Structure formats: C-alpha cells, structure tokens
Amino acid sequence: MTALISIAGLRKEYASSTGKVVAIDDVSFDLGEGEFLAVIGPSGCGKTTLLRILAGLLPISSGSATLQGQPLTGPSAGIGVVFQEPVLMPWRNVFENVILPLELAGKLDAPATKRTNDLIDLVGLADFRKRHIWELSGGMQQRVAIARALVADPVLLLMDEPFGALDSMTREQMNIELQRICATTGKTTVLVTHNLIEAVFLADRVLVLTPRPASVRALVPITLPPRTRDSIHTPEFGAYVRKLDDLIKGGAHV
Amino acid sequence: MSDAPKVLAEPLPEDVPGEEHSHWLGATVVFVVLIALWEWACRGLGVTPNLLPSPSAVGMELVGNFATLLRHTWVTAIELVVGFAIATVIGIALAILVDRSKMLSSVIRPYIIALQAMPKVALAPFFVIWFGFGITSKVAMAAIITFFPIFVSAVAGFAAMSPRMIDLMTVLRATPSQIMWKAKVPAALPYIFAGLEIGILLALTGAIVGEFVSATAGLGYLIAIYNSQLHTAAAFAALVMLVLLGVISYGMVLAVKRRVVFWLGKM
Ligand SMILES: Nc1ncnc2c1ncn2[C@@H]1O[C@H](COP(=O)(O)OP(=O)(O)OP(=O)(O)O)[C@@H](O)[C@H]1O
Ligand SMILES: [Mg+2]
Fold first, then answer.
1. Nearest-CA neighbor of B164 among A85, A190, A73, A151?
2. pLDDT for the residue B41
3. Which of A134, B92, B170, B178 is least surrounded by Cβ atoms within 10 Å, i.e. has the fewest?
4. CATH class given for the domain over A3-78+155-248
5. Domain range summary for chain A, segments of one domain joined by +
6. Which of A55, A91, A105 faces B171 most closely, judged by CB atoms?
7. C-alpha span between B161 and B231 (Å, rounded)
C-alpha cells in the first residue's frame, strides 16, 4: 500500500480574540490508496480542523502534511469534499449541481454528461435528475453532495459528518449506500463521524482523537470481513464499538 | 417526466385559488365605497372643485384629455426605465468591483456614504444646469436616486454568501470570476431584487422631482402646470396616470423577480 496522505507531527493553532487556541497538537498518520479512514473524537477536539487541512482550506502551523508526496499548501486537484450540510445551489437542479466540478474545470462535454448521469444513478437519484433541490429530502440532498464530490473522479474523498443531521434509519441506509459507492469506486476516503457504528461499519481503520488539542489516542484497524446490514449485530462488531467507546471516553487502555 | 419540473417551476399554484380571489373582491368593494364617499362629499358638502375635484370630474379629464396624458406618461416612463436601467447596471457593476477589491472598496466607500447621506433631490437643480431641460436631467435624477439601494443591497448580497459555499468553490479550485458569476451573483439575486423593488419606485420619484424642477414634458411637468392654472381635476387625472405607471412598473419588477429568483422562499 503506497501512502496517499502522510501526516507527521501536525500542529494547528488558531489565533482568537483571547489568544492562541491549539486545535491540533500532535497528529501523525499515513493513509494508503483505497483505504477508508474514519476519524472519531469528542466534540470540539479538532476533527473538522483536520479535515479542512486535508482539503487545503487551512494552513498548518507546524509539522508536515503531504498528498501524493506534495505538501498541502492549498486546495489540490482531485479532492472531493462532502460537508456537514449539503451546500447545494438552489438555482441549479440536481443534474446541474452534480456537474458543477466538471463545469468549473471547463469539461462540459458528452463524457461529462454521461459521468454525471452515472453518478446520479449510483446515489440512487435517477428519477430526480431535473428536480429542484428543495424538492428533495435531507438525505437525498446529501446524496447529491456525495455525487458531486465524486463526479470529477477525485483521488481523495473527504466527508465531515455527512449524515449527522439524519435519523438513524436513514443514516443506516446511507451507510450501506456509501459502502457500496466506495466499494464500486475504490476511493480513498476520510470520514469524520460521531457515530461509532458508522465508523466500524465503513472503515478499514479508525483514528481516535483525544479531547482538544487533538492528538492520536489510537489508530484501530477494523479486521472484519466486508460488513453487511446483519454484521452490526455480531459480537465482533459490538466488541469494536465498545472498544472505540472506551477509547473516546477515557482511553483507560490503549 | 421531463415536463414535470417545468410545471413545478411556475409560481406557486397553491397560492392562487380561493383566498387571493376574496382579497381582490374586498379591495374592489373598498375602492368603490371610497370613490362613492368622495363623490358624495364633493357634491353633497359643496367642496370647491379647485380644492378637491370629484371623481367624476377627474374621470372626465382622464377620458377627454387621454391623448395628452398618454404622451406625457410615455415621457416619464422613458425617464423611469432608462434611469432605472442605468442605476441597475452601475449599481451591480460597482458592487462587484467593491467585492473583488478591498482596496477599491476602502477608497470609494467614504464617497458612497457621503453621497448617500446627502438628499439626492437637492441635486435636481444642478442636473438641469449640467444636462439641460430635456429628458437627460430627469434620467440622471432617476438614476442617482435609484443607484444607492441597488448598490447597497448587491454589496450586502455578496457579503451574505455562505462561507461553506466559498469553501466548496475553493476546494473545486474555482477561479475568482467563477466564484463571482457561478456562486456569488446567483446567491445575491434575492438581495439584488429587494434593491430593485425599492429602486423602481425611487426611480419614478426621481423622474417626477426632475420634472418639477424644470421640464417641458412628463407627468410631473403636467401636474405642476395644471396646479398653477388651478386646473385641479386635470392634475388629479395626471396623478392617476402616475399611480398606474408606478403600479405597472413595480409589478413588472415583481414578475421578473418571481421568474429569475424562482427558488426564493423554497430553501
Ligand atoms: N476559526 C477558528 N478560530 C478559532 N478557533 C477555532 C476556529 N475553528 C475552530 N476553532 C476551535 O478549534 C477547536 C476544534 O474545532 P473543530 O471544529 O475542528 O472541532 P470538531 O472536532 O470538528 O468538533 P465537532 O465534533 O463539534 O464538530 C475548537 O475548540 C474550536 O473552538
Ligand atoms: Mg466538526
């Protein structure tokens, strides 16, 4: 496995009105191509900060962060991001929202149209291509955002609690779909989540962060076979969830 | 299937039936009653026609003098539309420049504020000196009085763009002009139209003020002339045309808004 992302001794400080806030203290990890990493940690610990750094939206304070060997100094080509809210354009319909990244890259041709339509199919919105986005449910809007993040065929998919606002049933459905999408596209993915079941269900490895300032408490490999709806109820799955829960709450045993 | 979204893009059908109808009915009834009261007051109480003409006298002027009224309405309408168009183009263009460049923004902002604080009506006599007695000075008056709400609302619209949307465009490596035209301008349209709604009415005020100061044509000119002749019924007829012009132009802005900002109130 070649490292797509390499983070070493990462530190991030914010300048705030009351002085410096250290959001990330010392985080190091490598992410291999095709790997699915879930990031969990208590609220306010620095997960979004980490994701924004990976997206090239925030400069780092010290340490190093590289993507494909290149330092992350700004938004690189080939990154798809799904934010906590869908961030869709209401003046564009579903198709026009999904094709946006290709349009911005100046690639509005027949293959672009085909790829956009394929991705809309992939996220299960084939019947909604020409719909206005206010005619979609919250979960459907988030699927539009996922399709948009994938349409330019990014090497890295970053997701910040994409299903945080959804009820548990819709969320489970979205997890299954996301798993299918990631299996189909083989994308390297970083998913920030509060939901431990979601983390164990989707991830190859789970990065557990400490309370702010974030450092690595543990990097837990999930060695379960490809998960299905039923594996959630197996004892092995439950053991992982309990382990992550312990790590987040106290880190008593690492 | 491909036709369905088109239908949904039309103005809300659920707003139209029943209720809207009864509002119109009520308004019409009130209108008729008010006109009847007014007529009765003029005849029954013997109010001097020079002070307050009766509705029937105004109606007669409207019919008998219609060709003249229409000619002058046309002049005012042109001043209104041209002034409004100039203010819209300059207001939005300047707002885009101000949003693009912090430097430019800090340089021109004091002037904008100073100009905004000044009652623009006070400029009318100067415009006559600079642009003459013709239509140009009225267009200038309409434009300058309309410029501010459009400029200010466009600037506010660009500033109100969600930081998440900027993040999205940044991650997608959009160029500054792509961010402006594909995200900021559409996102600011509801604000811009709020400015245009105020602006179209101010443009009419500007044109009329210009005509009051000095003119050879237009509804403001007509009202001033008829008033000086104590021909109040004719002045009222011109006023009626002015109201119609205002309502129609405002209605047109609203109709355009409903088409362009079709997502307003939906998200
Ligand atoms: N722009 C900023 N300026 C100053 N401090 C900030 C800024 N953004 C975040 N922080 C601080 O950095 C810390 C980490 O924030 P971050 O948003 O990364 O947390 P998080 O782990 O994503 O939390 P949550 O799970 O609640 O979303 C917080 O304590 C926050 O107050
Ligand atoms: Mg967060």
1. A85
2. 85
3. A134
4. alpha beta
5. 3-78+155-248, 87-153
6. A55
7. 53
